[in-house]
Amino acid sequence: MQITSALPIAKMVGANRLVLGNGIVHVVGDANLSVEQEKEVRRQLVQKALKALQADNTAA
Amino acid sequence: MRIVHYLNQFFAGVGGEESAGMPLDSLKGAVGPGRLFEQLLGDDAKVLLTLVCGDNYAVENQEEMVAAAVQRIREVKADLVIAGPCFQAGRYGMAAGALCAAVQSQLSIPVVTAMSEENPGTDLYREMIYIVDSGTNAAKMRDVAVMMMNLAQKLVDKIPLGLPKEDGYFRRGFIRDRFVEQTAGQRLVDMVMAKVKGEPFESEMVPTTFSPVRMPPGVKDLSQAKFLLITDGGLVPKGNPDKIQGSAATRWGSYNIEACDNLKGEDYEISHGGYDPQFVRQDPDRLVPLDVMRELERAGAIGEVYEEFLSTSGLANPLSNTRRMGREMAEKAKQLGIDAVILTST
């Protein structure tokens, strides 16, 4: 799976498990937050990534 | 004209799938389609050598097979290398493409092959070499051979090629200068008008197409899964040991994180010319989320994080390059028995 802040590019090349990152300069971070808050943002993104990894293709 | 021709075991008449494991062999003179090539090119064209390799062997030992084949081609002082036609045979196409690309870059002699558009070899090598569109029907061997030899003759004689459509090869993505009567603005308005009226028109810019990627089944049990972290954000150890370029990278690296609970800014640098690296430099976990992955690992939510992460820089890179690196990374993940990959992209 891919965490990216450039979603259109990932979609264009056919990636199929995608999570939108938190900005190109810190895909899984946030420089404006405190260290703990930032880690929470990262935790949530990784949790979403894990969910995406478990998904099966249900499309016909 | 001295020609070397590459064939798989099937088109060489050796056998089918049961012979796909045969190593590279060289036969004197023309075999199968090679005879047709000689006929089409005329009297001074001779297939000196026919290289034959089983499809499985070629793909499983590609580097070795290509190196040995290039050596034999060098020895006979060939003027031209022809591979295939491969039609839709995927392994055959991959081998033919790899061989032609290597011959072209190492021996600087013309190469021609032919495949169908859906052949994975077309996708991977169309930007590097001339691949004639063979379609999928092997019964069209003669038509395909005519197109291949027309192209080959032009390449050997250094005659400028026609457009891809005219000479029957897949677009390589070259841009050519040409004098035209109308300005870009006029042509554009004409196209828009045609489009509005539902009339046919031909775009001058054809976007690259990407074939669909099959989605593998989901990971059944995360707590047993082995994870690999990859990034294209250019994170490398201080000093950039593999000299990964910050733009149009041709290499990727694999870096040990075994003893790390998280990634420290002082140990790493960014080799990527396409984004402001100051935030990742401060804390590389903002790009490669190792700290959180370690938490999950300790909590038993995920099985394990593999002891290295892979990295390259994804910027201004030709597709042929990125596809190759992607394949190499996927191959490594497969060998390591990785169950899940998290790729973070800037």
Q: Overview of this structure, please?
A:
Chain A starts with a strand and ends in a 6-residue tail after the last helix. In chain A, about 45% of the residues lie in helices and about 10% in strands. Chain A has one domain. Chain A has helices at about 5-10, 35-55; strands at about 1-5, 20. Chain A is mainly alpha-helical. Chain A is built from two helices and two strands; from the N terminus they run βαβα. Chain A has a two-stranded parallel ribbon. Chain B has about 350 residues and is an alpha/beta fold. Chain B folds into two domains: about 1-165, Cobalamin-binding domain (Rossmann fold), CATH 3.40.50.280; about 220-345, no CATH class. Chain B is built from eleven helices and 13 strands. Chain B has helices spanning about 35-40, 55-60, 60-75, 90-105, 120-125, 140-155, 165, 185-195, 280, 290-300, 320-335; strands spanning about 1-10, 25-30, 45-55, 80-85, 110-115, 130-135, 225-230, 235, 255, 270, 305, 310, 340-345. In chain B, the strands form three sheets. Chain B has a six-stranded mixed β-sheet, sandwiched between helices. In chain B, helix 3 packs across helix 4 (about 90-105). The model of chain B has no long low-confidence stretch (mean pLDDT about 95).
Keywords:
heterodimer, A: 60 residues, mainly alpha, B: 346 residues, Rossmann fold, six-stranded mixed β-sheet, five-stranded mixed β-sheet, 13 strands, 34% helix
Quick structural summary:
The complex is a heterodimer of chains A (60) and B (346). Chain A is mainly alpha-helical and 60 residues long.
Range of strand content of chain A: 5-15%
For the record, the count of structural domains of chain B works out to 2
What does the overall shape of chain B look like? globular
User: Mean of the pLDDT scores of chain A?
Assistant: 92
Q: In the CATH hierarchy, what is the class of the largest domain in chain B?
A: Alpha Beta
Question: What is the percent of helical residues of chain B?
Answer: 25-40%
> What kind of sheet is the major sheet of chain B?
6 strands, mixed
CATH topology of the largest domain in chain B: Rossmann fold
Strand content of chain B: 15-25%
Which consecutive residue ranges of chain A, at least 5 long each, have pLDDT under 50? none
Largest contact between chains: A-B, 34 and 39 residues
Our Rg estimate of chain A from Cα atoms comes to 13 Å
Second rung of CATH, namely the architecture of the largest domain in chain B? 3-Layer(aba) Sandwich
Q: Which series of helices and strands of chain B comes N to C?
A: EEHEHHEHEHEHHHEEEEHHEEHE
Helical residue percent band of chain A = 40-55%
Taking all Cα atoms into account, the compactness measure Rg of chain B is: 24 Å
Please outline the major beta sheet of chain A: 2 strands, parallel
